[in-house]
## 1
Amino acid sequence: MFDKILIANRGEIALRVLRAAKELGIATVAVHSTADADAMHVRLADESVCIGPPVARDSYLNMPSLIAACEITGADAVHPGYGFLSENARFADMLAAHNITFIGPKAEHIRIMGDKIEAKRTARRLGIPCVPGSDGGVTEDAEALRIAREIGFPVIIKAAAGGGGRGMKVARGEDDIVVALQTARTEAKAAFGDDAVYIEKYLEKPRHIEIQVLGDGKGHAIHLGERDCSLQRRHQKVWEEGPSPALNASMRAEIGDVCAKAMQELQYIGAGTIEFLYEDGKFYFIEMNTRIQVEHPVTEMITGIDLVNEQIRIAAGAELSIKQSDIVLEGHAIECRVNAEHPSTFRPSPGRIQSFHTPGGLGVRVDSAAYQGYMIPPHYDSLVGKLIVHGRTRNECLMRLRRSLDEFVVDGIDTTLPLFRTLVRNQDIQNGQYDIHWLEKFLATGGMD
Ligand code: ADP
């Protein structure tokens, strides 16, 4: 096992990793920018190192600073959390060159899945069903038109290097395709420094359903059920739940087995998520994330398995401690991402939290690095905390979520808490009847006015 883990992240996920490390008896090193000097992850870690100025490029994304921090403190492993360097194969390679373990998959797998064209090719080879579309990248107008005609409009043009819901353009008919292709390429170049794009069928009313996997790279891989992340705004997840209201046990077992077998064949190491769109009883692979995800607590609440603990143990060379038959899904869990944003305009609202009171009680978990008097810096994402609630049934979970949201107090800044208080009382949500466009439509038709 590792002696000391450096956590190359901030906010609630830095705390989440720190907690898992402490429970394993491993010493922790926090890193921080000058803007985060009094952040909670710095206070709770055994040691801390300042790695640069507020702007992430010069601190949390600064690889030489992070390696130097490992060397100064003698850390023998790095947990990247999510975001920042978590899916950066070069960082994984660089750590390996310094004999420091990257707590995550092989650099090779990060590379494959980071290029969405390559990821789809790999998924197809492994027998995972994919969204119909181009086999590779598309550059020419005529080629784009040919493929779009073949698969049928509407189509979506997506950046190969895409992420965070950016770099996607929908073309509804032949007149749109040339502009959509050019805009997608220009935006992809600006956002990711890579103008490679591909085309796939645009699904009109799918749900976003993702499968959590764990592999030990030693021939074992399992799945831990699904999370339904269909409630999105600008392709960003807002509310996640598991199990999905749209699946039954046999559908779950079927797609789960496909994913577990694929990961076994790939000899995948660590935690990962295989994302699908789900429409009319069919699954279509869209991408794989080779890291722990924001919404991982949903799975932890219904399986009782500590995913970060598993990541650390597997990275240290242990075999998977659990078999597929050990995974039993119990009850229902919902996660709300509470952001420092206005609940209807979504304008960011950085600033000082005047009072902070989190809900509690049976089945209630709050993952947050905020506290009373905490100043939310404007430099990073706007997540204030995640409220995750578990119940024996979906209905019990919804009732518990409703009272937990009513207990939650964050004063001094705007948050999205009022949005969730409205959602939890909405009939469609209560019935589990929503697709990936539901929330945008709800907001556009004045749901929050
Ligand atoms: P990112 O890596 O930017 O998150 P994804 O490929 O995971 O991109 O897609 C993010 C979201 O965009 C999906 O959850 C879905 O809402 C939407 N989306 C992606 N591909 C399609 C598609 N083929 N049809 C309809 N919606 C899509």
## 2
Amino acid sequence: MNILHVSIECYPIAKVGGLADVVGALPKYQKSLGYNPSVIIPFHQNQFTRDAELTKIHKGSIQLGEVSHLYSLYKLISPDLGFTVYMIHVPRLLDRSKVYGHSDDTERFITFQLAVLDWINIPENMPDIVHCHDHHTGLIPFMMTYTTTYTNLQLTPSVFTIHNAQYQGQLSFNKLYYIPSFDRKKIGMLDWDHRINPLAAGIKSAWKVTTVSPNYMKELQVNANGLESLLRNEGKKCVGILNGIDTETWNPETDPMLVKNYKLSTLVSGRKANKKWLCDNFDLSIEKPLFAFIGRLVTEKGADLLADILEESLSNTGINILILGSGNQEIEEKLKSLRERFIDRYHVHIGYDEQLSHMIYAGADFLLMPSRVEPCGLNQMYALRYGTIPIVRRTGGLKDTVIDIGDGGFGICHDQTMVWDVCYSIKRAIALYQDQVAYKKLQRRIMKIDHSWHRSAQEYIDLYNSLIQPK
Ligand code: ADP
């Protein structure tokens, strides 16, 4: 079975968040199950694409309204990521260093989708399954089925995965002419609230829709940024499949980004060396428990609460806090301004730093995730794998993956997104940390939990198989 994953991000080529991690790992596991997955992404301009060995395998052109774009399709030769990678190069439009946040993102994403379709519409390039990820690729299932240009693809099954329903990529119907001619009776398939909504179009047009955790699927039926009723109506073709993690990349025994590698038997010394590096570099004290946060500094992640959580906890308890992230400028400024007051117990690193994130998973004692919305969340699974205890709000995938220690589980959970709740959880964590025997026993236990992709990769294969007609 040839599976084509269509995405904007793919680790390690271009990563902004969890989407990259999923698209960079799931195909690897699908390959290990004996299938033939490949990934197609835009040709981003970055260090990876500058260093990589690529070969041009196809040239074509697409029409975005009145503008024609020439595109080239490259295949990644090395490094070998464990699956085939294709990149679509469109000069000056797709080859940018920043993945998102351009004023012409709508044009960029539609051009990318048109080039993907142009290429796979050629019979020898046609996959058995087209698996689209998030709104940037949400028009593909519609265009495969209803346009008169890509008729070869009408019978090819499409799967659409919602990684985050907060972002829907809406555009005005003034731009309808970007979409090649289609059966006008089907215009409603593009529409949500009088706008073209690529996320809604993906949900309506794909043969199957998945989300990244079973609990998020349930939550979306009551809160999906306006798409609740659509998800309820389409419920029969929707399924929640829990994300996994790439246990090869995320392995404390071999992770090249750590100061000291460790395994179960060397957990104490290994983690101590990594914690020492963090404390030395960020002026923190190694004696105190270290609480960390990694992620986008946005309200969705509960990052707006961090400043108050910090003030309350640092004033009343003996802990260290380290934050890594970027996002909302107001939140960033507030977090930076607190640094002076708690100079030897708190540090915030504004920015994106892959290596530092690995060091934090390996050296912090607890990871804070006070999320309001968390479709799956990967951080808690990385934390568990590295022996860091997660403190999470029970929402989305966090509810599916973390069980409270009070219920025989291995994390610390709270139900509300309130400063008080998080601070109370921090107090529970401190009590746990003070009993070093129980704390280390718990660390050993969490490192053994299997959150790899093995089971979920098979669930996706079963889903694809349910769509493919026997030949
Ligand atoms: P998101 O909603 O942002 O996609 P996920 O939990 O699904 O959240 O995935 C987040 C991924 O991005 C994890 O691999 C996490 O370690 C990484 N990450 C987030 N922010 C940063 C940052 N500032 N620096 C390094 N890695 C980060």
## 3
Amino acid sequence: MAGEPQADCLFCKIVAKEVPATVVRETATTLAFRDINPQAPTHVLVIPKSHHPDAGSLAAAEPQAAADVLREAGLVAVDEKIADSGYRIVFNTGSGAGQTVFHAHAHVLGGRGLNWPPG
Ligand code: 5GP
Ligand code: ZN
């Protein structure tokens, strides 16, 4: 069923605390933790606790959870003191766009200059 934990999903295992992560925020519906391979001084991943393969399918199935992820991304930026300097929220979608973990997640990136358009 959509949203149920997937046994072979790394981020479901982080939600279940079977794989450790440096958690910076947690709510009933979301978890925010530091990316293991940071691409900027602040690089935090915000995920829904429910399993959906990407941001679009999350928003279609559980719009409130998608809104929760966006709210938490903004609050991570405030906590990390990058809200004023500017930050980027990225949802890579599909392997051609660099998605490697197929559990929806927002990258929150900041603390350095961020070029536009991204590579
Ligand atoms: P994607 O490439 O799917 O947009 O993003 C997946 C992200 O998950 C990558 O930035 C990668 O560094 C991060 N990542 C992969 N494995 C782990 C892990 O075990 N722990 C943490 N904290 N991040 C991970
Ligand atoms: Zn998952």
